[in-house]
Design goal:
The protein is mainly α and 106 residues long. The protein has one domain. The chain is 52% helix and 0% strand. It contains 3 helices and no strands. The longest helix is centred in the N-terminal third of the chain and has 23 residues. The N and C termini lie far apart (81 Å).
Length: 106
């Protein structure tokens, strides 16, 4: 007896990255709402536009040099998302982007 073949697609790394990015964006919005933190207009627009681009294209950036091939968010978008989550949780910013210059003589 023959088994029926199911129309299932093979798991794709991009689909997983897309789901992870969308979940992270939803968690960030939820965390800000629960904490009662008012996001700036720019941050709200950022979350909405990134979510829209990930839904439409599978990733939120066009230039392949701005992020890893299998990722849905670029490196800077990921940093900004972490900063929004940190703001919602009441912690300091997500980390320094640039190292401080020391003023000590050598």
């Amino acid at each position: 007896m023959k088994r029926k073949a199911f129309n299932r697609r093979a798991p794709n790394g991009r689909d997983g990255a897309k789901r992870a990015a969308l979940n992270a964006l939803k968690r960030a919005k939820r965390a800000a709402d629960r904490a009662g933190i008012d996001l700036s207009a720019w941050e709200g627009e950022f979350l909405g536009s990134v979510e829209e681009r990930v839904n439409r294209f599978g990733r939120a950036f066009g230039d392949p040099e701005k992020g890893a091939p299998g990722q849905a968010l670029s490196a800077l978008q990921t940093i900004k998302l972490r900063e929004i989550v940190a703001k919602a949780s009441g912690k300091a910013k997500g980390g320094r982007r640039f190292a401080k210059k020391s003023s000590a003589p050598l």
